What does this fold into?
Amino acid sequence: MAGILQKIFGDGNQRQLKRLQKIVDNIEALESEYEKLPDQELQNKTEEFKTRYEDGESLDDLLVEAYAVVREGSKRVLGMRPFQTQLMGAIALHEGNIAEMKTGEGKTLASTMPAYLNAISGKGVHIITVNDYLASRDAKEMGVLYEFLGLTVGLNGNGLSKEEKREAYQCDITYGTNNEFGFDYLRDNMVLYKEQMVQRSLNFAIIDEVDSILIDEARTPLIISGSAKKSANLYQQANAFVNTLSKDDYSYDEKTKGVQLTEEGINKAERYFAVENLFDLKHVSLTHHINQALKAHVSMHRDDDYVVEDGEVIIVDQFTGRLMKGRRYSDGLHQAIEAKEGLQIQNESMTLASITFQNFFRMYNKLAGMTGTAKTEEEEFRNIYNMDVIAIPTNKPVIREDKPDLIYKTMEGKFKAVIEEIKRRHETGQPVLVGTVAVETSELISKMLKRAGIKHEVLNAKNHFREAEIIENAGQRGSVTIATNMAGRGTDIKLGEGVVELGGLAVIGTERHESRRIDNQLRGRSGRQGDPGVSQFYLSMEDELMRRFGSDNLRSMMDRLGMDDSQPIESKMVSRAVESAQKRVEGNNFDARKTVLAYDDVLREQREIIYKQRFEVIEADDELREIVENMILSTVERVVTAHTQDDDEDNWDYPSIVEFVQGNLLNADQVTEDDLKGKDQEEIIEWIMDKVKARYDEKEQELTKEQMREFEKVIVLRTVDTKWMDHIDQMDQLRQGIHLRAYGQNDPLREYQLEGFAMFEEMIKSIEEEVSKYIMKAEIRDNLQRQEVVKNTQAISGGQEEKKKTRKPFVKKQDIGRNDPCPCGSGKKYKNCHGR
Ligand code: ADP
Ligand code: MG
It folds into this structure.
């Protein structure tokens, strides 16, 4: 026996199974005792476990007893006694691994045990399914068991209200699809009030059909997109306005490339746009557009900073003179330049938030998965998710006959043979499942079957509810079902009466999929739980996989054999060649997924910084002022340093500093050049900050303290969100364009990391500046007008208990520890990369 196992599963796996078997034996040993417990006492166990957990026992300590309780509960309310193999899988899941259990082995029931055990901690368990149908089916069917044992179960679905979602997430165990959980995460990080969030922290996820979610869907990230609020129109108006200005209307700082309207300019703008106060919060967007138009006109020079080519504005790298194709200036500057040059204004900010499944699921404290097919992707699961694949033996031996491939010369010959085979089996009453790689193939076969007068059903992964129904019938006598390989995943095909005698379900594959895993899925539809069954693949030399990857060797061999179209060959050598082609494609796809991940990692570091700090702002009360003051300090430091570089104080650029401070922080009469002269850098900064703080106090007194805090919150969140969304959109465009840059031996990923990091720093600078300006310059009158908002927000933060943590300044460079990973995503420590 051991020898056979070793052959099948390999050494490591066998050792794992041995270990699991020991734990299983312990669970089995408790059966006679638990069987005698009346329902009430069995149910009391849940509370007992919770108490023991609180008192310091670990979940691992509780596993044996907890699983025995679930098994007993399942016997009583579901009428199913979990098999030993299910217990094994259940343990592997609790350990954060992938349990490879074949179709029909009962993964749904197996997962209730780790779900129950981990729910004891009260931190929530998510069970992730590939579609809504499976989520609601499993939540409903398994819910009976959980509820019997005193746990709550929620179903997280598309179209639930925020309240309903929050309720579902508050449950001990929550079922739902990968998309829904991922989107909720992104949406939660876009809210303005803590109360609008729905998720708790991500604790433990069990992913069903894990290969489908973490492998097949890994190349398409989740994206929340929206059209930008800023309209092309406003860019044109701002551009037209700036065209009317003369030199006295704005000031320009060569060093920082900062441009701003002077008192006169502001008056002109207010007249031009017929607004009373340009700094009113109502006009944030207008001021922004004017500022960018100004910048475009005054500081950006055609053929120096950028060129115009084929109706597009292309940035010129300031150091190398290269054209930075695909890259756009952020924050609306690119659009402003387009307006200035009379070009069409490109769409702005389509991506508001995005994340890959890889990075979403890696945020869970613990991750587990189950599927019938994972071994072929073992390496990927281990490298990327740190999960081992443990192949669990089937409860009963698999007796399905997997016949060797049949290879035809042409597709036509192949399909003819497939139809013949379906006909032959159908005449005996044996149910047939025909698997296809593409929807078009399904349709073709359907047409041919119609002509042959054979009744059948077609599935192609569009309507999951109806499909589940069809697939359930696919095992009935006389049924013929055509399905693409994704269709009906997760729904078990049970054999109808008398079908065992007919040989069980016959699976016919009409093509090999790129990935062996998907072929195995199709095969595994037959022969569940010891049922008889048969599977065979029909291939042709014209199949996509053979054309792309079949070797010349193979082709010449076929020719030598002088194949004619009706005669298939059945050859080990061909099957091996097919398999090696599949391995090659799998390798390529793995690389593609690694690349997607490497790119998303750059954004992930940034996303985590922003989301974390954003959440701190949402939660903050009294610390808010400190956060804002720190942002002002950064800004002041930057400006002062930029203008006091010269060794000789006489050459310091006092006018520029004064201009900036007047324009952004203080009133014109509050700062003059004489105030700054005779001081060193630090003293200047300190002097300005003292004034700023005094002015801040004044403003705070004119409002109430609470109103000031809400005001700060509104300003910070709005600024961060606008800039951040703009930033990720820039990153998106940078990424799409980066490989267009065909110069030298540049590694596009490296380029992306470096530029992405520079853009991030730039964004933070501009967040700090903009917040400083709005906090200091917005007038009291406006705040009073905003009282509605203030009131609303107040009710919310009023409900929060004090958080006495000390707040760090908002997204400052210092937040990154020297040993933290560098936000550029290089994977190096910060101190060895950008923090050097
Ligand atoms: P999988 O997800 O592994 O393909 P399912 O969880 O869909 O399998 O279960 C397949 C079928 O087996 C279901 O109808 C389920 O009710 C049944 N089943 C699972 N476990 C047991 C058990 N221990 N005893 C009897 N039937 C079971
Ligand atoms: Mg399943």
Remarks:
- The CA atoms of residues 279 and 778 lie 6 Å apart.
